[in-house]
Structures are given as C-alpha cells and as structure tokens.
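Appendix B, record 7
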Amino acid sequence: MVFPPSRPDLSNPQEPYSVSRMLAGWFTIMIPVGLFAYSQTRSLFVSVGSMMAMPCFGIIQGARGMLRYRHYFGTPSYPRNPAHGVVVVNPEPLKEGANVGPYVSGCQCEGGSRWRRGGTLQKEEQAVLDKALREEPIRMLVIGDSLALGLGTDRSCMPMMPETLAKAISKQMGGRAVLWTGYGAEGAASSWTLKELSRKARKEAKAAEAAKNNGGEAAEPAGVALSDTSSNYSSDENTANNDSTNNDSTTPTSRPTNGTKANRAPSKKNKDPFGEWKDRLQNFRETFENDIAGPYDIVFIFAGGNDAKSAFIPFYVKTAKGEESTDYHKNDGRDSSLYSDFERIIEHLGPKMNTDFSSSAPNEKPLPLVVFPLMPSLVVPAFQKHFPVSWLVAPLTGIIENNKRRLQRKYPSHVVCVDAPTSKKAAQFEKQEGYFWQKRKEEDVLLCLRNVTEEQCKATTAGMTHHITTKSKAIKHRELRHESKEVTQANAPMPKLSELEGHQDGHNIFSIDDIHPNDEGYDFWGRLIADGVFQQVPALSTTS
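Structure tokens (predicted):
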C-alpha cells in the first residue's frame, strides 16, 4: 500500500522509502483528482493544474515553514559547544529508596564541574567507581547538526544527547567510564561534519604542498580554527596529565595517544576526590582541540536533515554551515553526492578511531563503531500537524536516510543505523511510562563530571530559557513558565516549561519550535539510540 505517501514499506527494511514509491503514492492521489477535474471541465489544462496543486502547495508549505523558522528562531541560544564530560553509571539498577535528589539537568553541580547523586555511596557502588578509574575509558564523540548541538533545550547548560548516550553506554558496559564530546552547528549540512573531521588532513595536505613549493623544505602547517560555534566554549583551569597510559586487556579498540592515568586509584593525599577524573577529562578535551584527533571508540553522527532542505528551497541549504565545497574533496575522484560525503566522513574517521574502514577483513571486536541515527520525520510536530507537507517530508527524508543504510551494508562491522523513534514510544515517555522511562528511573549515576563552571552554566541556561519564553509569547501568544512541583520519584525531571496546549501525544517532549526535542525529548531519544546500538551489537554489552 502506497497511500498515504508518508507510509514506509515495512516489507523492505533496507529501503523502506524510494523515489518510485513516493511517486506512486502521490499519483494515487493526483490521478483521481485530475480525472474528476477533467470530467467536470473537459479541460486538459485544468486537469493537469488540479493534479499539481497539492504537491505544489506542499512545497510552498514546507518553504514557508522553513522561512518562518528562520525568522523566529534564526539566532537561538543553545548549550555549551563544544562540550565535554565523563560519566560512570552503576550497572545495577538504582535501589528503591535511594537518596538521589533531582535528575541530572541544568547546573546541579558543585562548582559547576560535576554532579554526583546525593547521599553516601554504598561500598559496592564505590567499588564500581574505583574500578572505572582503573579501567581504560570509552571515548565517544557526538558530532553533526543542531541535534548534536542540543538546540531546543532550556534547562541544561550542556547538550543532553551526548551525556544521555554516555550514561546508557556506561551502564550497559558494566560501569565503564565514558568520556564524551558533543560538537555541532545549527543548520549544518553533512559537508560541515566532513569539513570538521577532515581538518587535520587538510592541514597536512596544505603543509605538503607548501613543502613541495619550497623545494622539499617542510613548512609549518597553517592552523585551521574551530568553527565559530566554539565561541560558546571555555576551558577549565585543570592542567593536563602527562603520565603514560598502561594498556591492559580492558583497553578498547581505539588506544589513547595521550596520558590518562588509566590504572591508578584515587590518591588519599589528593584533597579533591575528583582530581583524577578532572585530569582525565582535561586530557580528553585536548585531543579534541588537536584537530579532533581522537582516538574515539564510538562516534555518533547526526546529519542528513539539513541536506533535505534543498528539496523545498534550493538556495536555503547554501546558508547551512559547511555546505561550500573545497578543492581538497573535489580531487578525490568522487562526486559531491550525500553518499560520497558519508564515505569521506568514514574515511576521515579511520585514523581518529585507529582502524582501517576500507579493509575487507571482518572485525572481531565490537569497537570502534560509527552510529548514524535516522531522523524522526514521522514524530516531529511541525510535520505531523501540517498537511500535505508531511506527505513530502517523510518520503524525502527516508530517501536521504537510505544513504546511511547503504553505508551500513558497505561497512557492516563498523557502521550501525538506528531507527527513528515512533510516536507511540514518544507518547509513553511523555507520560512517564514505558520501557525507556523505566530505564531512566533505574539509572544510578555515580559520577557526572562536566567541563563548565557554575557561572557559565547559569548564564547559558538563562539565555536558553529567555529565548524559549520570548518566542512562546511571539508565536503561541501565551507565556510559558517553569512549573514548580514536589519531587517524589527517583530521577525526577527538573521543573519544566508548562505544557503546550493543543498538541498530540508525544509532542510535549519537543521544543517551542515544533522541530527540535526539548530536555525530555533528548533524554528519550538518546536512550532509544543507545538501546538500538546494543540490540544490533550485543557483544558490546557486558550486562544481562
């Protein structure tokens, strides 16, 4: 069945959407309309015009929606970027009656640097934390568009997607420490991600060219600065740790190149019980600042959504960061298609993950891993509430997502695509029910260290909250305000903005712009993505 056109082909999980299926769905609508118009007017011109009216209206509707979004939300506030942190989560579920306090969101930290659940840790819980300090950590990078950036949040000064992913991974991998970095840009096309990941290679190529022009004399490579999105970031005052790493059997596939004190327990002489963790986080941050050198064990890439915008407004995506092509990528013999960009991204990730993705040899270890989450076009309120643009967005997004599925088939040992969430699951989480809400309730966070000061955190959160409330009055003609409720449950969310009236089930985990998730939305989606990864790569999990 191809009606409506937004319906995927469930019998073909590899490519549930295709151009032929989208056209068949639309012709199913257009031909009866055209025949009826012809029977009434006997005019071929009127018949063809009536057939084209609905898809043209959908395109105009989509273009209007994007221009409206640009007008109201063109200069949004967003969490710290780039952002870095480290988490350790107990592999055992949170014990009933444990003193945990409010859920980790916003600046729930001492000095703005870390958060650890309230109450004294039990002996077995402290053992998990000590063990995590002795083991080699998992290194994770989340990079891409506004979803990696965390656009839409208003209560957390740090992006929630990478931290939620890190918590789920830490718990499922037996309490391993997970060092995470989140880095994104609003409106970033896949070519922006490629540009950022190829920064070091471009510097080396430029240095080699300069050396050639200088008669073989090596030249100092010219620096390639971080994108302007990094202006929101400032480092802490911790100094780097230069001790060498002692690699053992617990070391992930991607071996670190910088010192991390992986096998040292906390020193009793150290007055700061989190000093070792701060050193480790500082070292990890420096690897990012060194042209995103890595190494990384898991990389999550959020891309493709902005590449679809050219279907509605051809010039619109040119304003997206990174859309401009470079001679460096033009000369590799491939075209400038989205799939070719994805291939280039994988190739540039190889050295950053200490692996050769082009090798045909099967990978015996679950790491390293590159994850492409699929975009939730059927869940986003902006698409669900407006017809017929939803019949265009879903199949067009699905066709773009096919490139990710092709990439997974080409690199089955290293690339994973995770299906988008459904409206049913989103509605369950919104009602604080279902599998993923239960996972949140059971989460026992032993350590959550963030590279941000209290002043920075409060300033960032205030800016995001002001942006959301101001836009609410301009668009919805009513004022959103933070609710104040008594906290009686474990891992309860922070007081949130009052619910948006007139929305369907599942829509209240989205922000005021009806496109990006809010704090709860990122928490839900991050858990769903992590769960999808462990389902496809069960060897990653060390817990039942």
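Remarks on this record: The CA atoms of residues 170 and 497 lie 30 Å apart. The chain is about 40% helix and 10% strand.
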